[in-house]
Fold each of these.
Amino acid sequence: MSPDTGTCRRILLYGNPILRTIARQIDKITPEIIQLIADLKATMIRRDGVGLAANQIGAPVAIFALNPQAADIDRPPTCLINPQIVATEGNIETEEGCLSFPDIFEVLSRPEMVIVKGVDDTGKETRLEATGLLARAIIHEYEHLQGILFIDHLSEVRRKMLASRLKELQEEEQKECG
């Protein structure tokens, strides 16, 4: 199934409790999971994301999508089911954003290289090694599946400076949820 067959879904904003939910492991790749993966890829591409975790579109299951092309790597969008970080190396500070936190970009220290394993949408065991932006995206999306948000890495002072914008996002999310 290609991203062309997926539906672009609403991305949950900061304040939605699903973003703090630890994702449930996938036992079986069902047609619903295949459709969720297509929707993840379609939403990620439409929103110019480098990655997107399933809980960001309201499905708290252990899947994330990656778009290597957004990191100038000539590979098609992919996904990982039940991802596990195998190794990390180095650290690099650079600016990072999140589709659940529009217009907020912060400098974070993240591993420079990451190796992650999981299962692809065909059920095949997959192992990815990435550096740079794609490594950052893998760590970012993996943390989403653990209920960890990128703002959790900010200092208390920096979070206080962002407090009004975070409150706006929470209010916007509340309106969307009715």
Amino acid sequence: MKKQTVLVLTSILAVMVFSISGFVYEQSQVRKKAQLASTKTTEFERMHSPVYGPADAKVTIVEFFDPACESCRAFYPAVKQLVNVNGGKVKLVLRYAPFHEGSEEVAKILEASRLQDKYWSTLETVLDMQPQWASHDNPQVDLIWGYLKALDLDIDQVRKDMSNPTIAAIVDQDKVDLRALQVTQTPTFFVNGKPLPKFGFEQLKTLVEQEVKIAYKK
């Protein structure tokens, strides 16, 4: 056999071994995460968690998100639409995973805006303007205050409320829960306590549809 042929076959074999190893590792991580999630009952949703959609929906999407995360920004409208098209059967619960610099401060701004019933409009403004304030090399959280002027929001009160220990406790609890669930990246989704078999919106949509069928099979 020619040397060149041997080299080609060796390269192909190495790629196959690498691909299979990657698949096996990915599947083991999925099983590990699913087993861990199955042992948790309270870490997914807390009384303080913001909820989009009907509270009595039988299917719950829990999303650990970071306000400075580009993927979270990209997923947000699609996940919201996923709730809307399911006719009251699905709700979204948001949890904080403030991995980026400045994100914890933004989470507190969001919670303070919730005291004025402006949580979702504030969140959407923060995400819309994310490219301007959330540079990972140079985050400029102070820019957010200028964007919030367009909302019917008492900015001075938000500044006061975000220092409330109750709001700090909310963010701290979410950080405790994300560590308990071994969430290391955002967005991370669980549907009725089940992790995605593979990351992606289609995978999320499929899991939601499966859980809707199970929960509303009558």
Amino acid sequence: MYKIGVIGEKDAVLGFKSLGFSVFPVENREQAVETLIKLAEENYAVIYITEQTAAKITDRINQYRERRFPAVIPIPGIQGSLGIGMQGVKKCVEKAVGADILFNE
């Protein structure tokens, strides 16, 4: 069975525990990078990461972009969305169909 993890600020990720996800609160960039690498090595299939945390480790997240697992998916944190998740969706759609059919920019 595949595992799902959530990385981010404590207040933003604790609610996911009630859904059965593994929750990993982090306080800084180093902890976020260590946790992301650890979860990837432990064969997590999906890793949700708050956009505020993802913004700090974009270079590390991009290392997993071409791999099948884990799927690293930015989600809005408690401060709201930074648009990182939508930018990821936009890039994936452009790569898949060769044009921006969602946002028409």
Amino acid sequence: MSAVLSFFGAPAVMLARTVRASVRDGVPWRESMAQLNELGGRSVWLVMSGMAFFGAVLVTIANSQAKRFVGNVAVLGPAYFELLIRELGPVMSALLTASRAGAGHAAELSTMSVNEQVEALEMSAGDPYADLVAPRVIAGVLGVPLLSILGTVAATLSAVVVAGTAFGVDGRAFMDPRYVDGWDLLAAALKAGGCGLYIPLAAAVAGLRARGGAEAVGEATTAGVVAASLGCLLIDFAVSLAFQLLRL
């Protein structure tokens, strides 16, 4: 029970402390932009290549199902496109980002904790929440939605190519926005933004708790990635359930 409360409560406490410190001390925007470049620049190819493979796999599965039930994979295109925009694009892109950026944040912060650099920052009148956590949170909130857009585009294009070249159907059916509306875009934005907020917070919780030596850094990195990934899935479920209950 305590582990569950810690899993949900620690990032919320971290967010509250970060907001309070940022209001009091200001946000280091230059460091925030550096973190955005770090998160986006180093994750963009992982996200785009991973989503391209993901789109190809989805079309292959859709073709298999179409052969069994409807006979023509192209008729699944509009539903596939809505599913990709609303559900799979933002969440899978966020999970890929969590696997790289979450690990990077947790490893960097845990190394600073183990080497007592965080204590040194506090002794020099710095605040780790404003100086270390806030820039990573801003980078996540801005960067993950941008990466989700690029990942969704990559998955869509790979689906078009695979459908046309491997299955001989008009791949443009997998770009049909017939079923996509504003609620789909809002759900996608909430999922991407929520994951972008949660990933750096989960990584920071794990990183700043690290004590000891190299073993503690490894454990904190693993814990940060696991927490960030599970958090993204929970955010996906919560947003999807809320929209279902509201019939949106």
